Amino acid sequence: MQIAIVLYPDFTALDVIGPYEVLGRLPDTEVVFVAENPGLVRNDLGSLSINVVAQLAEVPNPDVVIVGGGPGQADQMADGALHTWLRSVDRSSTWMTSVCTGSLILAAAGILAGRRATSHWGALEQLAEFGVTPTDERVVIDGHYATAAGVSAGIDMALTLAGLIAGDDVAQAVQLLIEYAPQPPYNSGTKDAAPAEVVEKLFTLFAPS
Amino acid sequence: MQIAIVLYPDFTALDVIGPYEVLGRLPDTEVVFVAENPGLVRNDLGSLSINVVAQLAEVPNPDVVIVGGGPGQADQMADGALHTWLRSVDRSSTWMTSVCTGSLILAAAGILAGRRATSHWGALEQLAEFGVTPTDERVVIDGHYATAAGVSAGIDMALTLAGLIAGDDVAQAVQLLIEYAPQPPYNSGTKDAAPAEVVEKLFTLFAPS
Question: B38 and chain A: CB distance < 8 Å anywhere?
Answer without folding.
Answer: no
